[in-house]
Design a protein that fits this description.
By secondary structure, the chain is α/β, with parallel strands linked by helices. It has a single domain (3-209), classed as P-loop containing nucleotide triphosphate hydrolases (Rossmann fold, 3-Layer(aba) Sandwich), CATH 3.40.50. The protein has helices at 16-29, 45-57, 73-81, 100-104, 117-132, 150-161, 174-180, 186-189, 194-209, and strands at 3-7, 35-39, 63-67, 86-90, 108-113, 137-141, 164-165. Strands 3-2-4-1-5-6-7 form a seven-stranded parallel beta sheet, with helices on both faces.
Length: 212
């Protein structure tokens, strides 16, 4: 029953780390699923967030955290699946062929894109990599301005690539950034705010997609 979600994107600054942390938190505290984040990004931002979180929450923290190289992601994820309901793999940008193990082990590859042409260009190669591995793909429009015409361009791009798009769109909201800076996530700082509701909706959508 255990599932692996790999969050991947060639372009840096796409919000992968924030999405990984927030999804893990929602799955753990809102759906009571044992959840572990596997960080394969040498930059270490997620690890710094996790250390801050552990220091703040002590034993109230319910998320596990592990690290691995991109090449070691598949081996580590297989081990983690034996004792976790969900494994979320956060990947570095520019993964190319090196990222294949993190794609191969995934039950779902979530690809965040910002509504910009540069992001569209960067996304094509990671979509093709996931397609070659015959993986389920979910494109997530992230950091979006609800009034921007580029959201419609992003939707057209997803249609052209013939992949699935998440119904949930994440807005470009300061609460995502500020909560991460505290070692927390949006659902721990808000109850009814837009950012909180968006992340809850996304987690519910992915949970339904994976039949868990």
């Amino acid at each position: 029953m255990s599932k692996v979600i790999t969050i991947a994107q060639q372009k840096g600054g796409s919000g992968k780390t924030t999405i990984a942390a927030n999804l893990a938190t929602v799955f753990s505290i809102k759906h009571n699923l044992s959840t572990v984040i596997l960080d394969t990004d040498p930059q270490g931002s997620l690890g710094k967030w996790y250390l801050m979180r552990k220091d703040k929450l002590k034993d109230k923290n319910t998320i596990e955290f592990k690290t691995a190289s991109l090449w070691g992601a598949q081996y580590e994820a297989k081990s983690l699946k034996q004792k976790s309901d969900i494994v979320i793999i956060d990947t570095p940008p520019k993964i190319d062929a090196d990222g294949r193990p993190a794609i191969e082990i995934a039950d779902l590859v979530v690809i965040p894109i910002s509504p910009s042409q540069v992001d569209f260009w960067a996304t094509e190669s990671i979509i093709e990599l996931a397609k070659r591995e015959k993986k389920e793909i979910l494109i997530l429009i992230n950091r979006a301005n609800a009034k921007s015409k580029l959201i419609h361009e992003a939707i057209k791009f997803v249609d052209r690539m013939k992949v699935k798009k998440a119904k949930t769109i994440l807005g470009n909201r300061q609460i995502f950034v500020s909560s991460m800076g505290l070692g927390l996530t949006v659902v721990e700082k808000q109850r009814t705010g837009k950012g909180c509701l968006e992340m809850l909706a996304l987690a519910k959508e992915i949970k339904s997609f994976l039949n868990i």
